[in-house]
## 1
Amino acid sequence: MAKKEITTKGIVIREVMMGEADKLLTVLTPELGKITVRCRGVRTLKSHRFAAAQLYIYSDMILSEKDGLYSLSEAEPIESFFDIRLRLEAIACCEYFADLVNTVTVEGEGDAEIMRLFLNSLYALAYRRELSVRLVKAVFEARLSVLLGFMPDLTACASCQKEEAAFVDVAGGEVLCRDCALSSSGSFDGRERLLLPVNGAVVSLFSYVATCEAKRIFAFSAEDDSLEMFYRLTERYLLYYIDKKPDTLTFLLSVL
Ligand SMILES: [Zn+2]
């Protein structure tokens, strides 16, 4: 089959060296989803592809495709998120996000919303210093859970319908009021409950992050004690559903 030329935007989320001068890149694109792209001669200094063919750089790319295999012909950086590289905790968080995105997406399939979340979160890590890395991490985890289809039902206590959430039952994807949580025997419908404390503000915050416009995802404010509960909730919640603790998270937690 003849070679086909494809123009796309893309961000490199993983790279593996191949031999002396080539790289295999895992690239997230809006239309093609997650793809593997071979990049030849990337280590030679005169390579014009060098600057854009690196991790966590968002670029305009021209790919050539033959028999379902992609190789990089041209790349021009749009955004390098340079400032992420100035802080260890921001780099560690970025690696954790990339690891998660790589885990939850399938080659040849993609989700433009997940890509947008990734880009918006990298932007926040790089340029929104007023947002703590912990906060960016928690928002990313909450939104990713929802994009993967694991939105908890936050409307009212799942048992008595009172609108006073005191716990999220992670395993059930629902909330319970204090009375119902205390009177429950620890299991429900034959499964263990996994209860994490919340308050009304955390429930509102989770709902906001779940449903707001992608570009407004960090446009909220909350009290410190609610944020603390939110941080504890989002990581447990997401990891419960993807059923994996990435190594990059262990490293991130050691530097946060
Ligand atoms: Zn209740």
## 2
Amino acid sequence: MSSTLLRLGLWIILLVVILYVLQQTYEEAPFVDYFAPAMLEKALVLGGLLVIAGIVFRLMERGAKVVTKNRCVTCKAPIDKGAIYCRQHLRSVLSREDDRTHMTRVRK
Ligand SMILES: [Zn+2]
């Protein structure tokens, strides 16, 4: 979706640039009337909007991917960005870690 929008926007901008160059080169030619500057401007704005929309969509797709990837290692429940475990499993992991340090203290 995002790559299609980006490609379409870039193609439109490229087309506008080509038409602009043609217009500047053949100012006397009869077909130049078809590519009025106002129309080229509109097309350029449309292309720019498509590119921006494509970038926004791409960022959103990337964000969605991050969200779906972030799940608790143990129970696969969806969790916050940057977390490894859900609240319940984080607690159990921390208490297990706590026991470990207590054990080493006892061994000393
Ligand atoms: Zn969990």
## 3
Amino acid sequence: MKLGILGGSFNPVHLGHLFLADTALCALKLDRVVMIPACRSPFKPDAEGMENSAGTRVEMLAAAIAGDSRLVIDACEIKREGISYTVDTLEDIIARYIPDGKPALIIGDDLAVDFPKWRDSEKILKLADVVIARRLNSAAVDYPFPHTLINNEVMNISSHAIRKKISEGKDWRSLVPAGAAVIIEDRRLYGFSGAGAGEECSHALILRVEAAARETLSIERFIHSRNTAILAHDLCRRFNINPMSGYLAGIAHDLAKQLDSEQMMKLAKKDKAAITELEKEKPNLLHGRAAAVLLRERFCVHNEDVLEAVAVHTSGRENMCSLAKIIYIADKLEFSRNIDPAARKICNGDDLDNIFFTVFGKTVSKLQSRDLNLTEETLRLLDRMKEKNR
Ligand SMILES: [Fe+2]
Ligand SMILES: [Fe+2]
């Protein structure tokens, strides 16, 4: 196995790190790159909180490289504690991985200029082939020790700059792999103070539910669910509801839509509410209730508003919470629905009840024009709407 070794603080991991690993794998025809988060870097001995953040840095790295078997995380420097010296790490890695030939020690050109001053640099040269990649400089430098230079593109990204952007509320998300960005937002790392998802609707949870929707639904149904989530997110923001609860309920609302009738019925029965004759005849009417059960049982969602919004998105219900009204609206008006543009403009109103009852009224009229039976819940809500309009 031809091995590459890429150390760093990974505080946080960013796309520059992944690009560097990828470039080294291809340019040097490596089988694997071992990524080694430092406990405390000898180059940044005063960096605050490095040892304390070790677990989180490893988690972010793991999230960033998920599914890529070419990349390995090795926590040897964290286990060793204290200042992390490359020479110790190399001996340890060679003993455990037994690579074919010398491993490639990949270092950025920002650190390479000082390589001769590293602890036991002569021994490092005996143990590994030093490979210098362009990190921040594109100018040619004459390094006075044996090395291979990778002529890679320079990605001008640094963890320091990302931490600064996060703390200043500037754009940083596109610089950090999605899995790591989710951890930063959910745990409010590096002074992140943007609109967080909140514990109950964390980004990590949303990613899991979205992945399940992508895997189980047809691509058209998935796009519909995602568009519903986006419109629900925007409506929630306008009506002062946690936008991520809107996204979560939107992405999940049709999660059970493509299950067979028997599975749908089995799941829906678990919510303990009665199953009507009409629902027995047309189990598809239960797909919202079934999805709510899936959310609670498989994804441990206990936010009652999210569960109600998913459960009643087909029929509506008297005294629905605001989030349930929003999901009902978003499901009917999202971008991929081929509807009259004027009907879509209803969304711009500033009275949620008015928007909801307009959309509900039109949906019911459409069902009636197709001679479809309405559920008992829908009929009760229709009566309520008529009373309101009297
Ligand atoms: Fe649905
Ligand atoms: Fe839907």
## 4
Amino acid sequence: MKIRVTDRDGTSHAVEGQAGLKLMEVLRELDYGVEALCGGMCSCATCHVYVDTDWIDGLAPPEDDEDDLLDSLEGRHTNSRLSCQILLGEEHDGLTVTIAPEE
Ligand code: FES
């Protein structure tokens, strides 16, 4: 499955994803990806991404802890998600995200 990732410089990349991994686990392997400092514990917000508006409604909505952490970010948009809280499945082939700015 492919994921399309726009980095902080605005360059778009086609990235190989894998069903069963968290989106964060794919993004942290990239030079232009996310830091994911807490390792997916939903406590650092360094895995923040903007999900393409065509995709955002198709994802399982954020749990309260993700929503609270997103609220602490200045750069939160309506399509903000923490990539460690998105479990990839084959239905996500073509998922398109943008790496959010560092905070
Ligand atoms: S990796 Fe820390 S909140 Fe997602």
